[in-house]
User: Which sequence fits this backbone?
């Protein structure tokens, strides 16, 4: 396997004239999707920004500022490399946990929950820092164990420290179920990759899916009056959104209207009607519905294809990584992007109950975009090391 990886890397090294190179296609896809996201934020937020702040470019300017910050972070991590994670991976994880613990005291409440800490006019979402920390800590932990988690005790410890505990911290302290789920799935994905016992994982996944199905079935047959908590009501609304057109089903129905009215090629960029106050916070979690309305199904499919290509190149960088630390760092970033893309599109199209999940680099959210760009700096650093190793080996051949 290692020989096969190096063979592929050697073929790539033959195409370059200098050793310090990386996957330029990955960088191009990243720049493209960031630029597209800025365009869509400008389009979707102009009306609400003018009404709320008197400046149609308010959200766009803030997102652009965080994009510059993220670019600086990405370049910093690219030039630093990724071996610093061996020494500081636990520190990043600890900072994420610490900021979550400070959230109840320093956080600003919005929509009934405290999820942001404001430093002046800049807002930071601690859950995003913890996602980064889970990736760094998980990659360091597995790499320190030789790239494989052996024994039930070690697997259990990793699942608790890198999946269950941080997920519970996010949910309990910020009431953010969606971010808790993402943190949990990132940790479990890394654990799955590091565990050779595939059959047990398949059994666990099948059992989890079955239990979730039974839970949803049971909730669906509860009398409406006994719906219980807000999250139970969300599941009921997911199954029958038309039953509460002005309440919990409003956002979902309006998003589906936007998707349906766009047709195949859409109404044209900037010509959405649903963003004019019908889809609440259209620049955030529901931005994909406006993409469908303005660019049509064709545009939405193109966005999905670009994300698929981006994920493929992250996977390719991970596959060719020269060590286990680089592999697991890349796969952690892969997991975060893939999970958020799948969950966001599934929510917008009402395939799963409505929950707040942003679409990476496209939904409005400064701290999320900046930290994701920092993570991609690590992926590009892994890619550079792979090219350097391949070029060095090529130069030593007789």
Assistant:
């Amino acid at each position: 396997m290692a020989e096969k990886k190096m063979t592929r890397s050697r073929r790539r090294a033959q195409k370059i004239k200098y050793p310090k190179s990386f996957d330029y296609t990955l960088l191009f896809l990243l720049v493209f999707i960031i630029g597209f996201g800025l365009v869509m934020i400008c389009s979707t937020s102009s009306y609400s920004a003018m009404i709320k702040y008197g400046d149609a470019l308010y959200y766009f300017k803030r997102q652009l500022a965080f994009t510059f910050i993220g670019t600086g972070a990405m370049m910093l991590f690219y030039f630093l490399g990724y071996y610093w994670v061996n020494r500081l991976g636990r520190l990043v994880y600890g900072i994420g946990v610490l900021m979550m613990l400070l959230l109840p005291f320093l956080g600003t409440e919005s929509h009934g929950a405290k999820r942001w800490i404001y430093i002046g006019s800049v807002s930071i979402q601690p859950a995003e820092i913890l996602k980064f920390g889970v990736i760094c800590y998980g990659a360091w932990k597995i790499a320190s164990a030789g790239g494989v988690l052996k024994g039930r005790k070690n697997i259990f410890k990793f699942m608790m420290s890198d999946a269950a505990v941080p997920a519970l911290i996010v949910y309990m302290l910020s009431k953010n179920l969606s971010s808790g789920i993402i943190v949990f799935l990132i940790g479990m994905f890394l654990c799955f990759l590091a565990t050779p016992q595939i059959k047990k994982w398949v059994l666990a996944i099948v059992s989890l899916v079955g239990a979730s199905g039974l839970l949803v079935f049971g909730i669906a047959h509860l009398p409406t009056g006994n719906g219980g908590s807000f999250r139970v009501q969300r599941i009921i609304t997911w199954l029958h959104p038309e039953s509460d057109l002005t309440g919990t089903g409003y956002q979902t129905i309006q998003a589906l209207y936007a998707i349906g009215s766009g047709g195949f090629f859409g109404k044209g960029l900037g010509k959405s009607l649903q963003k004019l106050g019908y889809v609440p916070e259209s620049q955030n979690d529901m931005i994909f519905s406006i993409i469908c309305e303005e660019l049509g199904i064709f545009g939405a499919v193109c966005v999905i294809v670009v994300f698929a290509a981006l994920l493929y190149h992250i996977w390719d960088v991970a596959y060719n990584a020269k060590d286990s630390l680089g592999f697991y760092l890349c796969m952690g970033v892969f997991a975060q992007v893939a999970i958020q893309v799948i969950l966001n599109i599934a929510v917008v199209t009402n395939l799963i109950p409505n929950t707040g999940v942003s679409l990476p680099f496209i939904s409005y959210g400064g701290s999320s975009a900046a930290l994701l760009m920092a993570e991609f700096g690590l992926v590009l650093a892994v890619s550079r090391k792979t090219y350097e190793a391949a070029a060095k080996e090529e130069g030593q051949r007789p």
